[in-house]
Amino acid sequence: MSGAAVAPAGMLQLSRTEVKAIRKALLIGLDSYGEIQRLLNEAEFRRAYGGADLGDLAALDTGSPDTICEFALALTYLEAHG
């Protein structure tokens, strides 16, 4: 990361450009996570009500609700320190 420096308190300092890029990547990740959840819900609905099968989507499932919390925590940190 160009322009990144370690502050005296051991806190990583990021430039505005770096914060903007990280925020954009996190938003892309959140959007992707939402789309995966939408597909998994659609597949479950179709299986339950006899709709067309969407195939095996198990590989998409993160298996953990913590994923969304990690995105939120990272965005919260950027808002507080970016």
How many whole angstroms does the radius of gyration measure?
Answer: 18 Å
Mean pLDDT across all amino acids: 79
Beta-strand share of residues = under 5%
* Amino- and carboxy-terminal Cα gap: 15 Å
Number of domains: 1
Spatial ordering of strands, largest sheet: 1-2
Q: Total number of helical segments?
A: 2
Task: Give the number of DSSP strands.
Answer: 2
Major β-sheet annotation:
2 strands, antiparallel
- Shape estimate: elongated
Secondary-structure element order, as H and E?
EEHH
Question: What are its keywords?
Answer:
single chain, 82 residues, mainly alpha, two-stranded antiparallel ribbon, 2 helices, 2 strands, 61% helix, elongated
Description:
By secondary structure, the chain is mainly α. The protein has one domain. 61% of the residues lie in helices and 5% in strands. The protein is built from two helices and two strands, in the order ββαα. The chain has a two-stranded antiparallel ribbon with strand order 1-2. Helix 1 (16-49) packs antiparallel against helix 2. The longest helix is centred in the middle third of the chain and has 34 residues, at 16-49. The radius of gyration is 18 Å and the shape is elongated. The mean pLDDT is 79.
Task: Furnish the topology, listing elements before pairings.
Layout: E1 5-6, E2 12-13, H1 16-49, H2 66-81
Antiparallel strand pairs: 1-2
Helix pairs in contact: 1-2
